[in-house]
């Protein structure tokens, strides 16, 4: 039974999240419905990250076992046909070894969070970024972000319902960029680690936004981290600015081609 890796992009707004839930629309269910239109007996789809309701993806990775062999381009095209009109797109498909696992085989996950500061309501980017109406101090946010880098007990920055066995994680990157945005400024948070706790990224961003607004200091972020107490966390940012940007494996399952070759 051949196994295939899929690289997937989606708008998370219409979904309850990645994971299938009875009676609710999910990204996993949309993909499985599309696969079963091709092969009625297709198995379940396993994703690299279980994104929450409203969270988007630029480079989610999943694997699935199918009954027959497919040319990667044909599989990608057929899935995209059957995914319509859902805001989900398969960017690439590739055959992988039978022991490839989208979730447990990943060695790095990269998230992007987009935050826009402007007074006017959003039009084109509505639902795709978190908007605040006040100015933010990027230097203060960068200073506070450095406190979080490294291996720590991140109890403060994980949801109370998080099911991870340990709150200890290693945060490898938390960089913040600032860009011009029509009528305001955009801030992009690039966050990278092997794995994350539930709501960890949104807890980081919500807390750092308070620093940028002048309500918190970098020292208070350090105290919150050391408290190992969820009550010490700042507000949790809304989901619409968060994107699963990239999932990294020891060997790229999609090779040099990235998207499947149209000549396949």
What does this molecule look like?
With 264 residues, this protein is an alpha+beta fold. The protein has 2 domains: 3-105, Alpha-Beta Plaits (2-Layer Sandwich); 108-245, Alpha-Beta Plaits (2-Layer Sandwich). The chain is built from 5 helices and 10 strands; from the N terminus they run E-H-E-E-H-E-E-E-H-E-E-E-H-H-E. Strands 1, 2, 3, 4, 5, 6, 7, 8, 9 and 10 form a 10-stranded mixed sheet that branches. Helix 1 packs across helix 2 (72-83), helix 3 packs antiparallel against helix 4 and helix 3 packs parallel to helix 5. The longest helix is centred in the C-terminal third of the chain and has 13 residues, at 200-212. It is globular, with a radius of gyration of 19 Å.
List the helices and strands and how they pair.
Layout: E1 3-10, H1 27-38, E2 46-47, E3 56-65, H2 72-83, E4 88-96, E5 108-118, E6 130-132, H3 138-148, E7 150-153, E8 168-181, E9 184-193, H4 200-212, H5 218-227, E10 242-248
Parallel strand pairs: 3-10, 5-6
Antiparallel strand pairs: 1-3, 1-4, 2-3, 5-9, 5-10, 7-8, 8-9
């Amino acid at each position: 039974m051949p196994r295939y890796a899929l690289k997937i992009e989606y708008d998370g707004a219409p979904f309850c999240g990645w994971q299938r839930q009875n009676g609710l629309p999910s990204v996993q269910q949309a993909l499985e419905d599309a696969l079963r239109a091709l092969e009625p007996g297709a198995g379940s789809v396993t994703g690299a990250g279980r994104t929450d309701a409203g969270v988007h993806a630029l480079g989610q990775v999943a694997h699935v076992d199918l009954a027959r062999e497919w040319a990667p381009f044909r599989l990608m095209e057929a899935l995209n046909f059957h995914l319509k009109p859902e805001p989900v797109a398969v960017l690439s498909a590739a055959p992988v070894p039978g022991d490839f696992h989208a979730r447990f085989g990943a060695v790095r996950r990269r998230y992007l969070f987009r935050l826009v500061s402007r007074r006017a309501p959003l039009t084109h980017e509505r639902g795709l970024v978190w908007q605040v109406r006040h100015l933010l101090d990027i230097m203060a946010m960068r200073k506070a972000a450095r406190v979080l880098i490294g291996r720590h007990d991140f109890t403060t920055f994980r949801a109370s319902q998080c099911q991870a066995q340990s709150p200890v994680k290693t945060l490898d990157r938390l960089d913040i960029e600032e860009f011009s945005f029509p009528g305001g400024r955009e801030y992009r948070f690039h966050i990278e680690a092997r794995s994350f706790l539930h709501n960890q990224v949104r807890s980081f961003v919500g807390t750092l936004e308070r620093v940028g607004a002048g309500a918190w200091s970098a020292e208070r972020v350090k105290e919150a981290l050391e408290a190992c107490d969820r009550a010490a966390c700042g507000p949790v940012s809304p989901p619409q600015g968060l994107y699963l940007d990239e999932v990294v494996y020891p060997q790229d399952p999609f090779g040099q081609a990235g998207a499947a070759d149209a000549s396949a």
